[in-house]
Amino acid sequence: MRIVLESLGATLREPGREFRISVEDGLTLEAGEAYAVTGRSGSGKTLFLELLGLLLCPDPGGQYRLEEPGCESEDLATLWTDARRRLADLRARVFGFVLQTGGLFPFLSVRENVTISQEITGRQDTARVSRLIEQLELDSVSRYKPGQLSIGQQQRAAVARALSHRPAFVIADEPTSALDPELSDSVLRLLMQAARDEGAGVVVSTHDASFAERFPVSHLRVAVDPAAGSPGRTTSRVARAPS
Fold first, then answer.
1. Which residues fall within 8 angstroms of residue 111, CB to CB, at 6 or more apart?
2. Mean pLDDT per 10-residue segment, the chain (243 residues)
């Protein structure tokens, strides 16, 4: 499976302010590959991940194609107009998400949070749930609810949930920001393992400058384009960084 973005962008508007994220030169992301998304704070990394994960409605005129072997290519950007239920189904099936805030359901235990993505997609595998909980050192708190966990434990539970249903792509927004260095590398290794062994595409935004040096990833850079700016309007562009 692959994701192809062509002339795709999205715009956030507030009174007196407009911010646009743009992928104008075309970008292809392959399942089984890992990608590091870097950029200064405020450059639009999270906005790009939301656009990529079908969480943000794109501006008219661009294309978002999901290409699967044996299936006809389809422009998913058009689904925002009249097929949002199908868009939601695709989002749940294709993606696993690790949000900066963890995004766990507060009324469910750790194990229930990790299991729920399997239940939504019909991909039940209790052995996988137990294995992920063990790998992320959550055994002792698996019956706890998120409010009883540390920030780091919540983030690791979010990683387990994102991987649980074997998605084609995992999108992780600063997944190690609340972890100590040892656990941080453990989480990143698990994500890289998902790309290597399970054929998942892994897209990680990070402020860790050495991430792309320590792990085999392609580097995507998000940066404000001063030439495209104007009073009250900011444009950020996403592009592959030179190798």
1. 129, 133, 142, 143
2. 93 89 89 92 92 92 87 80 80 90 90 95 94 93 95 89 94 85 83 88 86 85 85 89 75
CB 20 within 8 A of CB 235: yes
Nearest to 111 by CA among 92, 126, 95: 126
What are 18's two structure tokens? 């407009």
Predicted TM-score (pTM) of this structure: 0.91
Show the tokens assigned to 41: 């704070």
CB 168 within 8 A of CB 201: yes
169, 3 in Cβ contact below 8 A? yes
> Is 76 strand, coil or helix?
helix
Q: Coil, strand or helix: which one is 215?
A: coil
